[in-house]
Amino acid sequence: MITGALFGETFVTLFVIMDPIGTVPIFLSLTSGRSAATARRAAWQAVLVAFGVIAAFAFFGQAILDYLGISVASLQCAGGLLLLLVALELLTGKSDDQPASGDTNIALVPLGTPLLAGPGAIVATMVFSRRVHEFADFTAVALGVIAVHVALWLVMRFSLPILRLIREGGVMLVTRIAGLLLAAIAVQMVEDAVRVFIESA
């Protein structure tokens, strides 16, 4: 029998951390100027990348960090700095100059990681994986992770009609708002990491 409580805890925790609804303005701004087919492809590619990263760290996360001598705080700080660079591009409008068929695959970075599969989601998944002691626990955690990624794909997939509705002016407004929100998320990630550095010094 599936452990319902563990499934619910896994789903709710990752849903809050990965924030599918909050991803919409960022996804719209990053895919503006691209074709609908490219945006749809970016949606499922980002979800696949995020799922792959989450799954890898669920099984091998602690071993990878120990082998490389990387702390969770260092991973969080690096992710925050990367997101901050993307946020500055959105705020200054540099990303608007990219051609619709640009070579940059935004589904990999920054959408797939570190926006979706960021340090928070990675650490949470690693914590849940430590609570797996039998097959029912594994099934509950796995279904929780899968359900969150399905929700992420649905939200991004059906955000495309919004993109067609708000037109160019709306996209510009959404882009600036997304840049501000993303910058705040990035600064918070760096702040949390610095706090850990100071406490462990």
- Describe the biggest sheet? none
Overall radius of gyration? 17 Å
* Average pLDDT level: 84
Helix/strand order? HHHHHHHH
Shape: globular
Please mark out the parts with pLDDT under 50 across 5 or more consecutive residues, or reply none: 96-103
Q: Considering DSSP H and I runs of 4 or more, what fraction of the residues is helical?
A: over 70%
Model description:
The chain is mainly α and 201 residues long. The protein has one domain (4-97, 107-200). It has helices spanning 4-18, 20-31, 36-68, 72-92, 107-116, 119-129, 135-157, 160-200. Helix 1 (4-18) packs antiparallel against helix 6, helix 1 runs parallel beside helix 7 (135-157) and helix 2 packs across helix 8. The longest helix has 41 residues, at 160-200. Mean pLDDT is 84; it is low at 96-103.
Question: What's the short story on this structure?
Answer:
With 201 residues, this protein is an all-alpha fold. It has one domain. It has eight helices and no strands.
Helix-strand layout with pairing:
Layout: H1 4-18, H2 20-31, H3 36-68, H4 72-92, H5 107-116, H6 119-129, H7 135-157, H8 160-200
Helix pairs in contact: 1-6, 1-7, 2-7, 2-8, 3-5, 3-6, 3-7, 4-5, 4-8
Features:
201 residues; mainly alpha; 83% helix; 0% strand; globular
